[in-house]
Design brief:
The protein contains 8 helices and no strands. By secondary structure, it is mainly α. It has one domain. The chain is globular.
């Protein structure tokens, strides 16, 4: 009986610890997300990182890294927009994450490129998404210009 109580206690402590640490960015998580930033060559890799490490997106280098990845994908790989659209439909929180990372920490020239893509090269089936991207780009450009004055 004592053994059973002991194992039950260990199990409950494990559950409590798991619940307490869930949603927290550990040092291991932070190291992994920092290392993975270099490999966001498509929306799939960004989505995997977001799914595993979104708890680490609370400002600083990690957030700026995610912003750079989002802007790189939208400016340099617009042809992959359908891949983003698929993930955006699958996860509204991922879509919000991506839109939030179109921000003034990135290069103004890249933001202008994204604005051009959204206005002139948007597929019909992604019209609403392009409008949302354009709203974020406009806000980011406004913030960037206000910050440079």
């Amino acid at each position: 009986m004592a053994r059973s109580v002991c194992w039950t206690a260990i199990f409950l402590i494990g559950l409590t610890w798991s619940s307490w640490t869930e949603g927290r960015c550990t040092k291991t998580d932070l190291a992994q997300v920092e290392n993975s930033r270099l490999t966001f060559e498509n929306w799939s890799s960004l989505y995997r990182s977001y799914s595993a490490f979104r708890q680490c997106d609370s400002g600083g280098d990690v957030s700026e890294g995610y912003s750079e990845a989002v802007v790189r994908l939208l400016s340099d790989h617009w042809s992959m927009l359908d891949q983003f659209l698929m993930y955006a439909k699958k996860s509204r929180s991922f879509k919000a994450f991506v839109l939030r990372h179109i921000d003034a920490t990135t290069e103004e020239s890249d933001l202008n490129t994204i604005a051009h893509h959204a206005a002139a090269e948007c597929p019909r089936h992604a019209h609403q998404l392009c409008l949302e991207i354009d709203v974020q780009v406009t806000a980011a450009l406004k913030d960037a210009r206000a910050g440079s004055q």
